[in-house]
TrEMBL record:
It comes from Acaulospora morrowiae. GO terms for cellular component: endoplasmic reticulum membrane. Its main location: endoplasmic reticulum. It is an enzyme of class 2 (transferase). It catalyses: [protein]-C-terminal S-[(2E,6E)-farnesyl]-L-cysteine + S-adenosyl-L-methionine = [protein]-C-terminal S-[(2E,6E)-farnesyl]-L-cysteine methyl ester + S-adenosyl-L-homocysteine. It is found in: Endoplasmic reticulum membrane; Membrane. This is Protein-S-isoprenylcysteine O-methyltransferase.
Length: 136
C-alpha cells in the first residue's frame, strides 16, 4: 500500500483508506462540498481564460476580470480550494496537510494586482469580500 510520509507523520494508512469505502452521511457531505469546490475552481479557470495560470504573474494586455464568480469574490478560486478542507480533514483526520500543501499566496497576488491595476484594483477590492460573500 502507498503511504505518504511527511516527517514522522503518515497521512494515508489502512484505517484512513478504509474510510474511503464507507459511504456515511459525513463522508457523502464532505465529498459533495469538495465537488462544489472543484466546480467553482473550474468555473474560475474558464472565466479567466487566457489570463489563467498556476503561476502568479501579469500577462501581456492583462485585464482585471470582474465577471462570473469574480463579480462576487476577489479570490473565488481559493474559495474552491477551501471547500476541500472538510474532505481532507475527514480523510486524514487533520488539517496540517492542507495548510502545508494548499496555503494560497493571496497577499503576493494582491500586491501584484494592486501594483498593476492601481485605482481599478482598489475599487474592485473594496466592493468585494475575499473568500466568502458578505463575510470575509
Amino acid at each position: 500500500m502507498y503511504q505518504q510520509d511527511n516527517g514522522n507523520t503518515t497521512y494515508l494508512n489502512n484505517e484512513n483508506m478504509n474510510r474511503l469505502s464507507e459511504w456515511t452521511v459525513g463522508y457523502s457531505l464532505v465529498t459533495f462540498v469538495s465537488i462544489l469546490g472543484t466546480i467553482l475552481r473550474l468555473w474560475c479557470f474558464a472565466v479567466l481564460d487566457e489570463f489563467f495560470t498556476f503561476d502568479i504573474t501579469i500577462k501581456k494586455n492583462h485585464k482585471l476580470i470582474t465577471n462570473g464568480p469574480y463579480k462576487y469574490l476577489i479570490h473565488p478560486s481559493y474559495t474552491g480550494l477551501l471547500l476541500w478542507v472538510p474532505y481532507e480533514a475527514y480523510i486524514l483526520h487533520q488539517l496540517r496537510p492542507f495548510v502545508s500543501l494548499h496555503a494560497p499566496p493571496v497577499y503576493k497576488e494582491e500586491a501584484l494586482l494592486r501594483n498593476h491595476f492601481r485605482k481599478e484594483w482598489d475599487e474592485y477590492s473594496k466592493a468585494r469580500k475575499r473568500f466568502i460573500p458578505f463575510i470575509i
